[in-house]
Amino acid sequence: MVTKLEKIAGPKHRFLLNMGPQHPSTHGVLRIVLEMDGEYAMAIDPVLGYGHRMHEKMAEGRPYNGFYPNTGRMDYLGAILFSHGYVGLLERMSGAEVPERAEFIRVITAELNRISSHLVGIGAYVLDLGAFTPILYAFDDREMILDMLEAITGSRLTYCYFRVGGVTKDIDDTFIRRARAFIDRMRSRLPMYKDLVTDNLIFLKRTKGIGIIDRDMAARYGITGPVLRGSGISYDVRKSEPYSVYDRFDFDIPVGENGDSFDRYVVRMEEIAQSLRIIEQALDALPDGPVMVKPKKKLKLAAGGCNYTVEAARGSLSYYLVGDGSDTPYRLKIRVPSYSNLSPLPELCKGMLLSDLVTAMGSLDLVIPEIDR
Amino acid sequence: MKSSEAVIKLNEAGFKAEPAEVTRVGYHVTVALGADQIRPFAEWLLSEGFFIDFLSAVDASPAIQLIYQFAHFDAPCRIHAQVSLPDSGAVDTISDIYQGADWHERETRDFFGVVFSGHHNLVPLILCDEDKDLKPLLKKEGAKKSLADIGLGEMVA
Question: Could you tell me the residue range of the domain that residue B83 belongs to?
């Protein structure tokens, strides 16, 4: 693409622009080096690693259950979903029994966490585009989830609630009552979000047709989650490789039509409604019984590799663990969704206006500490 | 593509594929790959519509094992491939076939020192320039175990 400026001045006038590591629209310490032609980004090079903590190495130096807190510190917005993958992996490898009630509680809390993550994602996205009000509404709704989860897990953000064999604390009638009240409230709020944001003319003009991802690109980069489903591909690990008790619930996978930034936003919005459906069904069918089967004091896993994939708030999350018969992992690989979702950025945004680049990048709903791990 | 179909097609295409017990290991198909087969394997997967899930490595004796995992959007079919790193310390890149492998290969270069020949930009991704030869996930002598001890011995081509 040859811009107007380039026709007049030739390629000499191009300049490098550092976006980040401290930039409001990168939502964390992500740096993007842009080669700018006036207002157009002609070459894009993301620079990662500012928040790198080497979780994979940390895992090798501590017992299996010592790694629970780490899982919640990668994707801080979807901590429960990350724990779900890790305990699922250990349970698959050790063959530990999980009481049915615990599985239901896991699904309820995981879906609540997904909603709270999407609310931040949506609010922050619209904030990137210059609208300040919606994020306040979103945080208002999210606050109810945080209060509920705080009462049973003890934390408000980096939850460490799941254990091999169940969950640490049972949910009580107060929680169930508050959860049902939240479902009603959130359902009544969804039309308000539609009027306020989804149907907003400025929002539509900013997001429609920006950053289109097609099936071929998604496969080449390994894009998953709402970003993928915005492109009309109904791939969701909860359906394709059901884990926990997700196969018992009736829910749909919302998909977009054009694969642009707007569709990715709409998919997140519709996923909130689907998560509410799952929570409602899980509350209705919640079985009685214990929530934890205490395993033997020290967890030791046999030699061999094992993989466990779950649907985190941003896409497919895989833990691949190689055991060696001891009480620490020999190798733990964590495949995080945002990493693969960010990687197409140079191809996706080549030749875009800087303001459109912010639109496209925001629609990927990135969590940088998860990418850097 | 169904996983049983994938096993047949992979074997027809000349790759050593076997069905795996998904409830135990979490993937449907295992493939024992030779280092020279990586590129044809990736081209086959892309033509069949698979997407790249991740690429990483495990340090063991006698050689580092590279792990490739692919899955499919339309059907539950997760393919897990293992490659023994040749003595040269280098394997072919697949980053021109699966562009998503670009970062995974750079990360594997950071953590294990594996060289991906043909990669267009094999510079540090996660680690900083000063630490580019740190190779933090390589095992110290004494801590390194044999493939049989970590249960990955059966999957060597």
Answer: 3-93+140-155
In angstroms, the CA A323 to CA A317 distance is: 19
- The enclosing domain of A156 has a CATH number of 1.10.645.10
State mean pLDDT over A113-140.
91
DSSP A305-348: EEEEEEEETTEEEEEEEEE-SSSS-SEEEEE-HHHHHHTTHHHH
- Report the half-sphere exposure of A23 (CA within 13 A, side-chain side): 16
Return the residue of A nearest to B154 by Cα. A304
d(CA B152, CA B157): 11
Output b/e per residue, A344-368; b: 16+ Cβ within 10 A: bbbebbeebebebbbbbbbbbbbbb
Asked whether the beta carbons of residue A54 and residue B136 sit closer than 8 angstroms, the reply is yes
pLDDT higher than 80, residue A348: yes
The verdict on a CB contact (< 8 Å) between B100 and A343 is: yes
Measured in angstroms, the CA of B19 and the nearest CA of chain A are apart by: 14
Q: What is the pTM of this model?
A: 0.91
Task: Classify residue B21: in a domain, yes or no.
Answer: yes
> What range defines the domain where residue A97 resides?
55-340
Q: Is residue B126 part of a domain?
A: no
Amino acid symbol at A357: L
Strand order in the sheet with A304-312: A304-312, A315-323, A331-335
Q: What ipTM goes with this model? A: 0.92
Mean pLDDT of chain A: 89
CATH code of the domain containing B41: 3.30.460.80
pLDDT exceeds 70 at position B157: no
Task: For helices A100-128 and A133-153, give the axis angle rounded to 10 degrees.
Answer: 160
CA distance A91 to chain B (A): 10
DSSP assignment letter at A239:
H
Considering only CB atoms, A316 lies closest to which of B53, B58, B103, namely B53
**B134 located within any domain:** no
Average pLDDT in the A105-112 region?
94
Within-domain flag for A18: no
